[in-house]
Write a structure and sequence with these properties.
Number of strands: 0
Order of helices and strands: HHHHHHHHH
Structural class: mainly alpha
Radius of gyration: 16 Å
Helix content: over 70%
Distance between the termini: 36 Å
Oligomer: single chain
Length: about 180
């Protein structure tokens, strides 16, 4: 997170796609081999490089929203939306973490869908702590992601990413 904060301050272009990929990959716990980690970093680096070549920012940092603005936006959200976000995030966190650890053909299919979008990658690695931290911290991570997704100016991008990740973790895909 410190490295991401520096990247946000300096601008992601200053650290480059390789370093950004290494920072994001290092954020998630994994029992993957060095070779598997390097493969994941390479895939992520390619995704970030495509963004860079397209003239997009390497990393999209959510705009800081004042507490008043966040409360105002959240008050307009239907309670069913909160439950839906919670359920999808929980499944993505749990199944995504398991797939990162397994490193089998199911993992490869999942990672192929993850690496199609920069937002998918950021959301997955942001959600994984929900599955691997103590209960209280997991709920804090869940709440923080939900608030960020509901209050960010790019809420539609986050919603699309969550839908894609939730689709990629459907139980029937693994039977």
């Amino acid at each position: 997170m410190n490295a991401l904060s520096v990247a946000k301050f300096l601008g992601p272009q200053e650290i480059g796609s390789r370093q950004a990929a290494e920072i994001i990959a290092a954020a998630a716990p994994s029992t993957a081999s060095t070779q598997e980690i390097e493969s994941g970093v390479s895939n992520l680096e390619k995704t970030l490089a495509r963004r860079e070549l397209a003239g997009q920012d390497l990393l999209n940092f959510p705009r800081h929203v004042t507490i008043e603005e966040a409360v105002e936006r959240i008050n307009t959200v239907d309670i069913a939306t909160f439950w839906e976000l919670r359920d999808k995030l929980a499944r993505v966190a749990e199944v995504g973490y398991i797939l990162l650890i397994l490193r089998d053909e199911k993992s490869e299919r999942f990672l192929d869908s993850v690496y199609t979008s920069h937002t998918n990658v950021v959301l997955l690695y942001g959600a994984i702590p929900i599955a691997v931290t103590l209960e209280t911290d997991a709920w804090h991570s869940m709440a923080a992601l939900i608030v960020m997704m509901l209050t960010d100016d790019d809420a539609a991008d986050w919603s699309t990413a969550l839908d894609q990740l939730a689709e990629a973790t459907r139980p029937e895909l693994f039977m």
